């Protein structure tokens, strides 16, 4: 057991050091006066009541010679007009503004500055009208930006099918995780009914897709290596394709990584320990971005899955059901109850309520 304790201490120390280094990389001292910057929009612009919010990555800071290259993430607010409304993911902009690190206006409320720091946001700024211009349209293409473009095509397809208002908002959230059209009333209704998790694409949806794939592919003989390889290839392509059309959102990517490990473990040995797979998925994702450990969605998803793995079978055995259909519904109920057991402490901590 001493070796196990030693390994845990090493991993914890390495994680703390990596997280500290990552947070230090976010910190940046901006010029005190208004400065000219060149940046690229790295996410879908979000229309507010009077502004358009864009997440950008600074490419150049032209406050003095020589020109510096900060490469920091910043949230920019543009005045809402016919020009800013046309901004898209991948556009390169030249703007003049005063940027400042995230701060809290009220210390008694939500720690917004800390939240943005964990999201790798180094600063915030408001760009006045006439103080910016698009230099290149759709010039930078990352994998996530390409995924966002395909997501926009699906949204346009829904519009062509004449989905509008609440129907369009709910359909977009359920299928591709686009929640910007959800109004406050819809969010509150789902939250009070205890079904808000349905609107947030995560492990539930990926798990259903994974289960459907296993059901469809179970008729394919899996004893031969070629057939097993074919099955896992179909599963991985489908899972990651689903993650791609959802814009590679962190919650979906987390779930896809976990179920990909499940599929790979079954391919290698046919047997696996689910908790080990869950731990491996968490380790891989935290190696990529250690700040995800502060993400509420990350904590909720892993606690829910861990609770299901630990408690669902015990809950199911509390009532012996002979009817197959009734047993199916009893299984769904026990999964939901087990997940609630895992997330109740976090829900009370962050939201002071649970449904």
Automatic annotation (TrEMBL):
One of its GO terms (cellular component) is plasma membrane. The keyword Cytoplasm does not apply. This is ComEC/Rec2-related protein domain-containing protein. Residues 174-355 form the ComEC/Rec2-related protein domain. Keywords: Cell membrane, Membrane, Transmembrane, Transmembrane helix. NCBIfam families: ComEC_N-term (TIGR00360). Residues 2-131 form the DUF4131 domain. It comes from termite gut metagenome. It is a multi-pass membrane protein.
């Amino acid at each position: 057991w001493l070796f196990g304790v030693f390994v845990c201490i090493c991993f914890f120390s390495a994680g703390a050091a990596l997280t500290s280094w990552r947070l230090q990389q976010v910190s940046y001292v901006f010029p005190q006066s208004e400065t000219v910057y060149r940046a690229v929009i790295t996410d879908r612009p979000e229309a507010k009541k009077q502004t358009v919010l864009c997440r950008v990555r600074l490419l150049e800071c032209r406050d003095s010679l020589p020109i510096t290259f900060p490469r920091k993430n910043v949230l920019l607010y543009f005045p809402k007009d016919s020009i800013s409304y046309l901004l898209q993911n991948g556009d390169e902009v030249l703007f003049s503004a005063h940027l400042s690190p995230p701060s809290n206006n009220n210390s008694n409320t939500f720690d917004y500055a800390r939240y943005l720091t964990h999201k790798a946001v180094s600063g915030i700024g408001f760009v006045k009208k006439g103080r910016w211009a698009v230099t290149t349209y759709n010039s930078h293409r990352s994998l996530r930006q390409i995924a966002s473009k395909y997501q926009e095509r699906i949204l346009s397809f829904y519009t062509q099918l004449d989905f509008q208002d609440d129907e369009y908002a709910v359909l977009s959230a359920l299928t591709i995780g686009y929640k910007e059209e959800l109004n406050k009333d819809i969010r509150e209704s789902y939250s009070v009914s205890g079904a808000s998790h349905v609107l947030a694409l995560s492990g539930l949806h990926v798990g259903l897709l994974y289960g459907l794939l296993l059901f469809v592919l179970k008729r394919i003989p899996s004893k031969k290596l070629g057939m097993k390889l074919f099955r896992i290839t179909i599963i991985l392509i489908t899972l990651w394709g689903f993650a791609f059309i959802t814009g590679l959102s962190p919650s979906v990517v987390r779930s896809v990584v976990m179920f990909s490990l499940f599929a790979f473990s079954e391919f290698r040995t046919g047997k696996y320990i689910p908790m080990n797979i869950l731990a491996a998925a968490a380790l891989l994702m935290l190696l990529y971005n250690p700040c995800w450990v502060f993400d509420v969605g990350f904590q909720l998803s892993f606690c829910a899955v861990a609770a299901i793995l630990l408690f669902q079978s015990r809950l199911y055995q509390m009532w012996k059901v002979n009817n197959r259909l009734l047993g199916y519904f009893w299984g769904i109920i026990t999964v939901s109850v087990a997940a609630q057991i895992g997330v109740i402490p976090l829900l009370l901590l962050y939201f002071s309520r649970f449904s």
